[in-house]
Amino acid sequence: MIKNFTLGQYFNTASVIHKMDPRFKIIQIITLIVFLFLAPNFIGIGILAIAIIFILLISKVPLKMYLRNLKPIIAIIILTALLNIFYVTGGTVLVSWWIFTITTEGLLKAAFMATRIILMILISSVLTYTTTPTELTDAIESLLSPLKFIGLGEAVHTLAMMMTIALRFIPTLTDETDKIMSAQKARGADMESGGIFKRLRALMPILIPLLFSSVRRAYELAEAMDCRCYTGGKGRTRMKKLSPSLKDFVALFITIVICTSIILLRIF
Fold it and tell me: What's the rounded Cα separation, in Å, for the pair 109 and 253?
């Protein structure tokens, strides 16, 4: 399951999404996620689902890579659906046993929430699959640049760099965790049987090597940045300057139209 988690990886291909200004991508993806939670019914979710599926297709990233990110959260999706099935009342009662009651409203709410979570994971993956770490850093720093007027110029660059490095190392740490788990299983470690406390104790031989590996990688990264005379954002220039194009504004306009339709659905 861990090795199938691909969030944080960059998939290099020539698509319209890859060529967009990363600042516009961040703004539009965050906006779509927010409106996923504002959608009042299946019509709103359907509109957003069509838009998100269209974005996935034109990104030219294989759909199986997007679907891999759903595997680690299948348990969360199922748990959310079950809670809605058993605790949401209304509509026609389908099953009633002991303290459990399943109604048509509960089933609809479960499907609604599950769809919402799935779409949120899919659209979030688009950002890292289609944007390089350098572009992400520059975009985040540019979006937070107004904070420089209140004396947080260095903090803005540091925050952008930290967020980008964190995203960049998600697949690296995932691979490292999978290797450590495979090594421990080869030594006879049992991590899949017993109660919850036994399983938690079985994670210690994984967490400790992973912690040491993370610290070692952080030290090597800091040393590499120091060897390259990295001094932060002050006086730093960029090889590529961010500049929006016509397709960025067209995509922003389409996003505004979609969000406006969701607002109208909530009102009427």
Answer: 31
